[in-house]
């Protein structure tokens, strides 16, 4: 590739910055100001924002391009854009640790903090005011088990959080984030207790089951225990919330979607466990429903949830051992 200098053509610079964004600064000033070339360079390396003129650091589209490629480039944006929700959320989606560079009032908004810790649990260290918020800490620890030391002293001793941290990162719990966000914005006091109980029960069931499935290689019998606990807690959570939520149309789609995704995850997880065992005729006959995506409705009457859970139970049941010769 030809080295870029002040005499390089626009096309030469455009080609160069696709491979090395910093070649931009060797070009003629007029070419450096070309927005197509700027965006091409930013798509290659967002850190070049550091060396751009101050007016461009206050250009929302320029900064947005930078942080989409490298979230930590947010530190080089203007103060105004470090308080811009669109820019900040884009940065956090790429790297949750960019929370360090978010300015108030966004830094105090729980949805901003959740966006950060769900991408990188270590971002919890940058928001002391949320380190005693179990909702936030659980999200952080689910993403990164080692984030627990950044929680408050009380939450560091919380039995559930300790178990979650010891199990390690369990990003599948992020499947519950849409439900948690919906709950956070819920204004109806009659719904909040039921939803809180349902989400907490499902979350604990997922962690317990996941932990025991992780030990399946060494303790195959634990799969049975995992199955029993998960089925019981999952079914109880749904049954307990159904009477309160069945008339709440605003909740239906989000609850259905989360429930289906959770069911599908555990189907896939147990299928993977079975596939790791030595092949046997019995293992080849996993339930046919395993191949299909769950699409039951939480609110159907009669509810198909129990039938779907029974199918999941079949998936959790280990195949019979082949007869000894």
From TrEMBL:
Disordered: annotated segments: 302-325
Superkingdom of this protein's organism: Bacteria
Record Pfam families: DUF4116 (PF13475)
Every DUF4116 domain range: 34-82, 85-129
Classification via InterPro entries: DUF4116 (IPR025197)
Name of the protein: DUF4116 domain-containing protein
């Amino acid at each position: 590739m030809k080295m870029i200098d002040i005499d390089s053509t626009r096309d030469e610079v455009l080609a160069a910055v696709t491979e090395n964004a910093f070649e931009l600064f060797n070009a003629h000033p007029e070419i450096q100001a070309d927005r197509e070339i700027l965006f091409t360079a930013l798509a290659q390396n967002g850190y070049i924002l550091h060396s751009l003129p101050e007016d461009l650091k206050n250009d929302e589209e320029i900064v947005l391009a930078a942080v989409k490629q490298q979230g930590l480039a947010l530190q080089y944006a203007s103060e105004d854009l470090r308080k811009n929700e669109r820019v900040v959320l884009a940065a956090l989606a790429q790297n949750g640790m960019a929370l360090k560079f978010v300015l108030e009032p966004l830094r105090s908004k729980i949805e901003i903090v959740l966006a950060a810790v769900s991408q990188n649990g270590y971002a919890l260290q940058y928001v002391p005011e949320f380190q005693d918020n179990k909702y936030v800490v659980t999200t952080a620890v689910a993403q990164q088990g080692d984030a627990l030391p950044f929680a408050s002293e009380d939450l560091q001793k919380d039995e559930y959080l300790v178990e979650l941290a010891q199990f390690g990162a369990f990003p599948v719990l992020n499947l519950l984030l849409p439900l948690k966000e919906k709950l956070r914005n819920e204004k109806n006091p009659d719904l909040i207790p039921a939803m809180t109980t349902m989400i907490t029960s499902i979350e604990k069931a997922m962690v317990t089951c996941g932990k025991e499935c992780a030990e399946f290689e060494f303790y195959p019998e634990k799969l049975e225990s995992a199955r029993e606990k998960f089925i019981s807690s999952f079914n109880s959570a749904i049954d307990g919330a159904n009477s309160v939520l069945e008339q709440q149309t605003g909740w239906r789609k989000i609850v259905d979607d989360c429930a289906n995704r959770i069911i599908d995850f555990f189907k896939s997880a147990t299928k993977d466990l079975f596939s790791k065992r030595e092949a046997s005729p019995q293992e080849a006959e996993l339930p046919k429903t395993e191949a299909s995506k769950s699409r039951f409705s939480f609110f159907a009457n009669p509810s198909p949830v129990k039938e779907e859970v029974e199918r999941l139970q079949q998936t959790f049941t280990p195949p019979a051992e082949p007869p000894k010769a």
